[in-house]
Write a structure and sequence with these properties.
InterPro entries: PyrdxlP-dep_Trfase, PyrdxlP-dep_Trfase_major. This protein is an alpha/beta fold. It has 17 helices and 18 strands. Strands 4-13-12-11-10-5-7-6 form an eight-stranded mixed sheet, with helices on both faces. A four-stranded antiparallel sheet has the order 14-15-18-17. A two-stranded parallel ribbon has the order 1-16.
């Protein structure tokens, strides 16, 4: 295959070669031996909202039992409250919602935006978001500042304009986007776009830069946000002696200094056994319970009681007006009510996380072994292979494969942008579909692999043969794509 002088030429050639890559991928699936009746019914992660994993039997049984009962919904919320306080302490509280995005929405609107009522014009408020991955979630609820980022979310999602990501922006709220020290924001992909490459993030220096921005915008500052992940590919590879990402702790210190909340988006994370809110110092952490816990679709907000009171009020859960501890009524965000089935399932999942974490940890340990074995055998030049970092995350119940280091001495494994995902031009996702494997998050040189989507049994335990088929398919697709990228003969 041809060698390319500039990376844009390589991506152009990949675009022109998609049909050939697909054809080779389909042939490779036959050579790997992926059974025909399995194709399209299993994948590299059960944590994609658009194709969630089947529920474990324990979650289904809990739901069936509760479905037959006459139970006030506030009862489920109170049970969750008790579990959260047992694990994190009495100063923490909880609110279930229908999705993680709903949790972000109500939290940002409640804690970050200016008041709407009262005489006179509203003031504008600003919150700080590190320039990291998935920024269209935690960083899209205000108008971007500085102006160079004003079009950063233009093509994300399926709809543009007010009905797309622009429509999420809150009233009189700005997002101050801060690049991280040690990160790179090189342009990559068929849908050519800057990508956050974060394995080199220096948390101490980054915190200093964030502090400078906080001082600059202090008069308008109402909060900080970031992801809650714990792997190198997300910029959180540097940890303290307790395993807590240093950057998260530093942001929490700044939030305390300015007396504003620090809201962590830990969508692909596990309460209780994952990123610990009591150790990183965050005010609020928000979860997508269906992504990693095995719960039905739903979201969970966990945070310090002082800040949870207005959130619970906004959801109609904080007590009747005549004076009660809890309620389940109407309020501004009643549209984010998860419903009985989701509440029962989330409660069951939380009990497992608290009492039987091995249900999730064991299949992850086995998956990590499979991923490391299969990537050790990948047919790439040795200098390229050395740039691949494989990490295990108990927070996300996932294995991270990061390959930004393959570009250290020249062109490496092709990097697809998040815009490629939305445009359908991410070959590591679209090509897997050609092989009968449902893809996972695979952009910004970072691939998250987790159990659950046809690779586990009814009890959530790993079916090794199926998991290995999926990982083998990914490895083979990378090899095929690298051949057309000119880095593999």
């Amino acid at each position: 295959m041809a060698k390319f002088k500039f990376k844009y030429q390589m991506y152009k050639h990949l675009q022109n070669s998609i049909s050939q890559i697909y054809a080779e991928a389909r042939k490779a699936a036959d050579e790997i031996g992926i059974p025909g009746d399995l194709r399209g019914k299993f994948g590299l992660t059960g944590a994609i909202s658009g194709c969630p994993a089947p529920l474990r039997d324990d979650i289904i049984r809990a739901g069936e039992i509760e479905a037959k009962k006459v139970v006030p919904l506030a009862h489920y919320v109170e049970e969750m409250r008790g579990l959260v306080k047992e694990v994190y302490g009495d100063e923490y509280d909880v609110c279930p919602v229908n999705t993680c995005e709903a949790g972000l929405w109500v939290t940002f609107d409640t804690l970050f935006t200016p008041p709407n009522q009262g005489r006179g014009d509203n003031y504008r408020a600003r919150y700080i978001a590190p320039y990291e991955k998935h920024l269209h979630h935690q960083g899209s609820y205000g108008r971007p500042f500085p102006a160079r980022y004003k079009d950063i979310f233009a093509d994300r999602g399926t709809t543009a304009g007010e009905l797309g990501f622009y429509g999420k922006r809150q009233n009189n709220l700005d997002t101050v986007i801060v690049p991280l020290v040690g990160a790179r924001y090189d342009v990559h992909g068929i849908k050519y776009h800057p990508v956050p490459l974060l394995t080199g993030v220096d948390p101490e220096a980054s915190a200093q830069v964030i502090a400078e921005h906080a001082e600059r915008h202090g008069a308008f500052l109402t909060g900080f946000t970031s992801l809650g992940y714990d792997t190198p590919g997300y910029g959180y590879g540097v940890k303290d002696e307790n395993g807590t990402p240093v950057l998260q702790k530093k942001i929490a210190e700044l939030a305390k200094k300015y007396n504003v909340p620090y809201v962590i988006d830990n969508a692909w994370g596990l309460p209780f056994i994952g990123t610990d809110i009591t150790k990183n110092g965050a005010t609020i952490q928000i979860y997508s319970m269906d992504k990693a816990t095995g719960s039905p679709i739903g979201g969970l907000i966990i945070g310090k009681e002082e800040y949870m009171v207005p959130i619970r009020r906004a959801l109609g859960m904080h007590g009747d007006r005549y004076g009660t501890i809890a309620s389940y009524g109407k309020a501004a965000y009643v549209t984010q009510d998860p419903g009985k089935e989701s509440l029962a399932g989330m409660l069951a999942a939380l009990r497992v996380l608290k009492d039987k974490p091995e249900v999730l940890n064991k299949p992850l340990d086995e998956l990590y072994r499979i991923v490391t074995e299969e990537f050790a055998a990948i047919e790439l030049p040795e200098e390229i292979k050395q740039g691949i970092i494989i990490s295990k995350s108990y927070n996300s119940n996932a294995v991270e494969v990061n390959y930004e280091g393959t570009w250290k001495n020249g062109m490496g494994i092709p990097i697809f942008s998040i815009e490629d995902m939305y445009a359908g031009s991410n070959i590591f996702q679209s090509g897997l579909a050609q092989m009968g494997v449902i893809p996972t998050i695979a952009y910004d040189a970072n691939i998250f692999i987790s159990p659950g989507l046809g690779t586990t049994d009814d009890d959530g335990q790993l079916i090794e043969e199926r998991a290995r088929y999926a990982v083998k398919a990914l490895v083979k697709l990378i090899e095929i794509t690298c051949k057309y990228a000119g880095i593999l003969d």
